[in-house]
Amino acid sequence: MARHTFATTITLSNNVLIETVSKMLGHSDLKTTQIYAKVVDEKMKSDMNALRLRMIEQV
């Protein structure tokens, strides 16, 4: 769980390059690290949808 939190919340969500995160986690294949990036993408989509709904409510 700590590795997941580090990869998603601490690094990728703060614009650390995925290649750097991959090295930090000791992954030999970037595809392994890309799993974490998908989680970040899903969170971003969810957040943007929530923002869109708030904007519609204000109109």
UniProtKB/TrEMBL annotation:
Descriptive protein name: Tyr recombinase domain-containing protein
A Gene Ontology biological process term: DNA recombination
Pfam families with a match to the protein in the record: Phage_integrase (PF00589)
Annotated GO MF terms: DNA binding
Keyword Chaperone: no
Keywords, sorted A to Z: DNA recombination
Alphabetical list of Gene3D superfamilies matching this protein: Intergrase catalytic core
Organism of provenance: Labilibaculum antarcticum
Xref: InterPro entries: DNA_brk_join_enz, Integrase-like_cat_sf, Integrase_catalytic
PROSITE patterns named among the record's database cross-references: TYR_RECOMBINASE
